[in-house]
Amino acid sequence: VQLQASGGGLVQAGGSLRLSCAASGGTFSTYAAAWFRQAPGKEREFVAAISGTGGSTDYRDSVKGRFAISRDNAKNTVYLQMNSLNPEDTAVYYCASRRYYRSTFLPNRQTPGEYDYWGLGTQVTVSS
C-alpha cells in the first residue's frame, strides 16, 4: 500500500483544515489507518486512528472534540478534519496504515511501530 497525504497549510488559530490520505495498492477496507504528527525537536505522536470499516475511532486527549477522523473506502481515502486549531497543533502530519482485518480494533494503535505503511507527511502550521 502506498499512502499520499495532502491538505496541510498555514492557518490562523481557531481555523480549520482537512487532511486527506489517499491509498493505493490494496483492499483498503482491510487496513486500519491513523494520523500521527511530529513537531520540530519532538517525537512522533499519535493523533487519531480508525478501523478498516470506520466503525471504531480513537483520539489523543488533546484533540478530542476538535478533530475527527473518517474514511471513504470507495475512494481509498482517510480524512482528518481539524477544527479550532491552535499553535500547539503545528507539526508535520503523517498518515499510516497496516492490514488488520479482525473484528476488534487494532491493539496498540497509538504506537507508530504498529504501522507498516507511511505517507510522506504534510505540514500544518497554525499562527497565533
Write structural notes for this entry.
With 128 residues, the chain is mainly beta. 0% of the residues lie in helices and 49% in strands. It has strands at 2-6, 9-12, 17-24, 31-38, 45-50, 57-59, 67-72, 77-82, 91-99, 117-118, 122-127. Strands 2, 4, 5, 6, 9, 10 and 11 form a seven-stranded mixed β-sheet that branches. It has a four-stranded antiparallel β-sheet with strand order 1-3-8-7, with no helix packed on it. The protein is globular. The model has no long low-confidence stretch (mean pLDDT 95).
Set down the secondary structure blueprint.
Blueprint: E1 2-6, E2 9-12, E3 17-24, E4 31-38, E5 45-50, E6 57-59, E7 67-72, E8 77-82, E9 91-99, E10 117-118, E11 122-127
Parallel strand pairs: 2-11
Antiparallel strand pairs: 1-3, 3-8, 4-5, 4-9, 5-6, 7-8, 9-10, 9-11
Keywords:
128 residues, 4-stranded antiparallel β-sheet, single chain, mainly beta
Mean pLDDT across all amino acids: 95
What coarse outline follows from CA principal-axis ratios?
Answer: globular
Q: How is the main sheet built?
A: 7 strands, mixed
Estimate the helix proportion, in percent: under 10%
Structural classification: mainly beta
Q: Could you list the spans in which at least 5 consecutive residues all have pLDDT below 50?
A: none
Order of helix and strand elements from N to C terminus: EEEEEEEEEEE
Strand content: over 45%
For the secondary structure, the number of strands is 11
Number of helices: 0
What gap, in angstroms, lies between the N and C termini? 37 Å
Cα-based radius of gyration, to the nearest Å: 14 Å
